[in-house]
Write a structure and sequence with these properties.
This protein folds into two domains: 75 residues, no CATH class; 108 residues, Helix Hairpins. The chain has six helices and no strands.
Length: 184
């Protein structure tokens, strides 16, 4: 349900066309109902939950980015909404890698981590955010070359995003642009 709300809110922030917003709201509503039925039946990792996650990872980041850019252009000023937008993108990046790790583990019969640790969603989420933030506790490590490559990619992307995009937006918080776009 939280995934559905996130997708719909990200489209609202992006000022998506009403027909797109209605269609996505309908789809997420249906997926949420099916996920609830699956949960009641004991299938917590069913197709509806996976579908909701893929919808979130596919729709929310571009919608959040579009909404942040529109807000910046409209106001010609970096606002707290822009800061929250870039931070939401950072969080969604961690969720994207969580989904990748879980998907690859599903194709590998649940194997992802060294030491035969189960690739549960909780473990994948924990691993993703400790990698993204480069904290790296060391209690979970990827078991394959693909895992090592994806982990390194996530760490690099996460750090580059923080030191470029987030720092640029935060350092300009409240500053107004002198020459708005389209005014010469």
């Amino acid at each position: 349900m939280l995934l559905a709300i996130t997708v719909v809110l990200s489209l609202r922030v992006a000022d998506a066309r009403p027909e797109v917003l209605r269609a996505i709201t309908l789809i997420t509503g249906i997926l949420t109902l099916v996920a609830l039925v699956e949960a009641v039946m004991g299938h917590q990792r069913g197709i509806a939950v996976t579908g909701s996650q893929l919808l979130l990872v596919g729709v929310a980041p571009p919608a959040t980015m579009l909404g942040t850019i529109r807000t910046l252009r409209l106001r010609n000023q970096v606002t707290i909404e822009a800061v929250l937008g870039v931070l939401c993108l950072y969080m969604l990046l961690g969720i994207l890698f969580t989904s990748l790790y879980a998907l690859i583990a599903a194709f590998n019969g649940g194997a992802w981590f060294a030491g035969h640790q189960p690739a549960t969603i909780a473990h994948c989420l924990y691993f993703s955010f400790t990698t993204l933030t480069t904290v790296g506790y060391g209690d979970l490590t990827a078991a394959s070359n693909l895992g090592h490559t994806l982990s390194n990619t996530e760490a690099l992307v996460g750090q580059i995003y923080l030191v470029t995009v987030v720092s640029l937006i935060v350092s300009n918080l409240g500053l107004r642009r002198q020459n708005p776009v389209g005014r010469g």
